[in-house]
């Protein structure tokens, strides 16, 4: 993959998208491996939290991929905005010794450079709290994953944010008002693993499409197997 990447450089913007694509692939692979370990050891809820994170990555990757030259730059330069927001947050209570140390760790020259960079890019972010100007829900809808956001992401968020609807997955009351802790079921593990596999295949498909790895048929075969397994268990 690296040699093919180096052999197909054409412009700064397109190169940046390819670099981002490699980053998303590497990150998604590590997350996917972590999900596998958690599922293997029967930690379905924690695997679900990482699956939710994987969904966030997929939505971002697909959204950038619809206009890679423009959106790759927008995504990367948003880091400048985040850096300025952190400085503003730290500056609100300058008397706090911890904040003082962090603020003092940056030289005046570096601080000036940060501010200049911020002034250069901020016009590109009408909503400076969203790099794309859209919510995750809106981006998911734009890339055809609206149902996943409304149903799958919603359910997984109960684990990520310790929501009240997640209580029943950890414990249960019997008729005598006794309380017992629950373990995850095989169905829980299968559901999380299948979902995570689908999301990772989406990333892999994007990598194959850009770097021409020639693994399209293998991806389709795995996808068919996942769907067949899921149908057989229904």
Overview of this protein structure:
The structure is a single chain. With 234 residues, this protein is mainly α. The protein has one domain (2-233). The chain contains 10 helices and 2 strands. The chain has helices spanning 2-7, 12-40, 44-65, 68-91, 97-104, 108-121, 136-142, 146-160, 186-211, 216-233; strands at 171-173, 179-181. It has a two-stranded antiparallel ribbon. The two termini are 38 Å apart. Mean pLDDT is 88; it is low at 1-7.
pLDDT below 50 for ≥5 consecutive residues: which ranges?
A: 1-7
General shape: globular
Instruction: Indicate the structural class.
Output: mainly alpha
Q: What is the CA–CA distance across the termini?
A: 38 Å
Instruction: Report the total helices.
Output: 10
């Amino acid at each position: 993959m690296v040699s093919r990447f180096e052999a197909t450089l054409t412009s700064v913007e397109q190169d940046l998208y390819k670099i981002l694509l490699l980053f998303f692939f590497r990150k998604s692979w590590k997350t996917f491996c972590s999900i596998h370990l958690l599922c293997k050891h029967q930690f379905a809820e924690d695997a679900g939290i990482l699956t939710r994170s994987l969904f966030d990555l997929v939505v971002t990757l697909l959204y950038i991929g619809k206009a890679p030259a423009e959106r790759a730059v927008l995504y990367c330069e948003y880091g400048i905005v985040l850096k300025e927001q952190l400085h503003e947050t730290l500056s609100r209570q300058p008397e706090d010794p911890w904040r003082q140390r962090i603020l003092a760790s940056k030289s005046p020259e570096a601080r000036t450079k940060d501010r200049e960079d911020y002034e250069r890019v901020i016009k590109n972010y009408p909503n400076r709290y969203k790099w794309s100007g859209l919510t995750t829900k809106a981006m998911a809808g734009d890339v055809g994953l609206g149902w996943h956001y409304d149903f799958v992401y919603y359910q997984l968020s109960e684990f990520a944010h310790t929501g009240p609807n997640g209580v029943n997955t950890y414990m249960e009351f019997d008729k005598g008002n006794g309380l017992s802790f629950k373990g995850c079921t095989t169905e829980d593990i299968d559901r999380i693993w299948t979902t995570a596999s689908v999301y990772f295949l989406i990333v892999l498909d994007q990598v194959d499409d850009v770097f021409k790895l020639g693994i399209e048929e293998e991806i389709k075969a795995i996808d068919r197997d996942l769907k067949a397994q899921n149908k057989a268990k229904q």
